[in-house]
Write a structure and sequence with these properties.
alpha+beta, 117 residues, globular, two-stranded antiparallel sheet
């Protein structure tokens, strides 16, 4: 394959503070949580990925898979990476999975995302 000299061999990495990436998402999740819940919001990794995809590629079809929060009912524990051989891990209170689920369901309802159960 011919070499293109206009493109660098390594694009490098740029460090971006987590706060800068998730500030808007934290506000959206906080708006979905119970009125009496004033704890800090720490979005889950999957929620951050979905948020970034929606922000960076607004015209792309956003397909959501593997989000237990989209289903009905509270998620209080999970197995990391879906591994059946790992024990259940309690969901940290700051994750606000119920509020994330409400936000994701709204995205699906308004057509901004599609859920693949």
């Amino acid at each position: 394959m011919p070499r293109v000299d206009l493109w660098p061999d390594d694009l490098g990495a740029v460090s971006v503070p987590n706060r800068a990436v998730v500030a808007g998402l934290r506000a959206l999740v906080a708006a979905e949580q119970a009125a009496d819940d004033d704890e800090v919001v720490v979005p889950t990794t999957g929620m951050v990925a979905a948020w970034l995809a929606r922000q960076l590629f607004p015209d792309a079809r956003l397909l959501l898979a593997g989000f237990s929060a989209i289903g009905e009912g509270s998620v209080t524990e999970w197995r990391h990476h879906g591994r059946e051989d790992s024990g259940p891990v309690p969901v940290a209170a700051a994750h606000k999975v119920d509020a994330e689920g409400a936000l994701l369901r709204r995205w699906v309802a308004d057509g901004a995302a599609h859920h693949l159960p």
